[in-house]
Amino acid sequence: MRAGIVIFLVAQLVLHCESSASLSLSVLLEKYCDGLSALHNVTGPYCNATTDQIGTCWPRSTAGELVERPCPEYFNGIKYNTTRNVYRECLENGTWASRMNYSHCVPILDNKRKYPLHYKIALIINYLGHCIS
Fold first, then answer.
1. How would residue 115 be classed by pLDDT, with cut points 50, 70 and 90?
2. How far apart, in whole angstroms, are the C-alpha atoms of residue 102 and residue 89?
3. What pLDDT is stored for residue 11 in this prediction?
4. Which residue, of 30, 61, 112, 132, has the fewest CB within 10 Å?
């Protein structure tokens, strides 16, 4: 049932995006986050849905709750492991804590990009070794 609601929300967002091409990415993220919050049945004090500076959606959540979201797939051109989570606390007064815990988000580095000089040197040595033998 939840998957159907998520598909419906994404379809609505896509339709809205096509009809409003002038909307900025941040506005679209806010709309997505608001739609995602519709899936959370929250009673009592709560924190409003919001997106942070990185673009992580923090859905409407019950006050006093520690909320977890998947790590971003990409940030500043670097790919991250999305099987880990980022955490943020919805404080007792219904406001979000200013700090988010992204410490569990680890980059996935391609060895060729991580050590480009060493990789090139190894290729040259390999090539020279084949030439000599």
1. low
2. 13
3. 45
4. 132
Run of H or E residues at 131: helix 116-132
Between CA 98 and CA 88 the distance in angstroms is: 8
43, 60 Cβ separation under 8 angstroms: no
% of the chain at pLDDT higher than 70: 61
* Collapsed DSSP state (helix, strand, coil) of residue 18: helix
pTM of the model: 0.59
Tell me the three state secondary structure of residue 80.
strand
Which residue do the tokens 């700090």 mark? 99
Token pair listed for 108 = 């996935």
